[in-house]
UniProtKB/TrEMBL annotation:
The lineage of its organism: Bacteria, Pseudomonadati, Pseudomonadota, Gammaproteobacteria, Vibrionales. Belongs to the class-IV pyridoxal-phosphate-dependent aminotransferase family. One of its GO terms (molecular function) is 4-amino-4-deoxychorismate lyase activity. It is an enzyme of class 4 (lyase). The keyword Transferase applies. This is Aminodeoxychorismate lyase. The keyword Magnesium does not apply. Its cofactor is pyridoxal 5'-phosphate.
Length: 283
């Protein structure tokens, strides 16, 4: 059983017991972070932890640990025998004596950290994914990595009910496609890369790495959100996150993207991403 850190103590993950009065459980009043680990090393761990601290600050939860202390806690949780794993961190506003919406809150933050092995489903043999456009029904602070993810879950439920459980949901807001239900969005047209700006979307760390790779490879990048018609006419479309990494989209609704197969630009970026995560080279 994996080791967990919970409220100041290390214990087997199956022994973690969360109070029914924890505000993370009752209200989703909490911030989370997911950090991929390869060969015992966090990929861009500093950026992930800075995003955690920024999220806590944005919702008014005081971080119980410094950046250096967070690193130490995570190091103790990493599973030595697993080449590929993810670290999950959740910080809630804490436990009160009763369920209460109003402030002030007299509670200390609750902290949970654990590791889980994972394998990305995407490699060079990946045939590509279909996607469906959906109206963005999420709250208006999508840049905060909060655990209140019901709208994202409902988007995946809709795909499941439509018989498309492996498809992606691409969110449209004010006429523009801004991101996927758990991923950032990229589009390629005539060897130019487009991605929505970090304006009320999650500032993905994988997104950041892709932009670094684009700079290294001398690709022109525009941080612009495409409308649906423009996206459907793209040469390539990808989504990115820490677990699936770079995933190509080959069809959106009834529209085939490019050749209907993962594109050459995606392949080039995917290979550079693998070098980054395993070899730790600086892009």
């Amino acid at each position: 059983m994996s080791l967990a850190f919970f409220n100041g103590k290390y214990m087997p993950l199956n022994e973690v017991a969360i109070s029914p009065f924890d505000r993370g459980f009752l209200f989703g009043d909490s911030i989370y972070e997911v950090i991929p680990v390869y060969s015992g090393k966090m990929l861009e761990g500093e950026l992930h932890l800075q995003r955690l601290l920024s999220g806590l600050s944005a919702v008014g939860i005081e971080s119980p640990y410094s950046l250096l202390e967070w690193r130490g806690l995570i190091t103790n949780i990493i599973i030595g025998a697993e080449a590929t794993q993810m670290i999950y961190i959740q910080v809630t506003r804490g436990v009160e004596e009763s369920r209460n919406h109003r402030f002030p809150i007299k509670a200390l933050p609750s902290v949970l950290i654990f590791a889980t092995p994972f394998t990305s489903p995407v490699d060079l043999s990946y045939p590509g994914c279909f996607a469906t456009l959906q109206t963005d029904k999420r709250w208006q602070n999508c840049h905060i990595k909060a655990t209140s993810l019901l709208a994202n879950v409902m988007a995946y439920r809709q795909l499941y009910l439509e018989g498309k459980p492996q498809d992606e949901a691409l969110f449209i807001r004010n006429g523009y496609v801004v991101e996927a239900a758990s991923s950032n969005l990229f589009m390629v047209k005539d060897k130019v890369i487009y991605t929505p700006p970090i304006d009320n979307i999650l500032p993905g760390v994988t997104r950041h790495i892709i932009l670094q790779i684009a700079k290294k490879l001398h690709y022109q990048v525009h941080e612009i959100a495409p409308d649906a018609n423009t996206l459907e006419k793209a040469d390539e479309v990808w989504v990115s996150n820490s677990i699936e990494e770079l995933k190509p989209i080959i069809k959106i609704d009834d529209h085939c993207i490019g050749s209907g197969k993962p594109g050459e630009v995606w392949r080039e970026f995917w290979l550079h991403y693998q070098s980054k995560k395993w070899d730790g080279y600086e892009v």
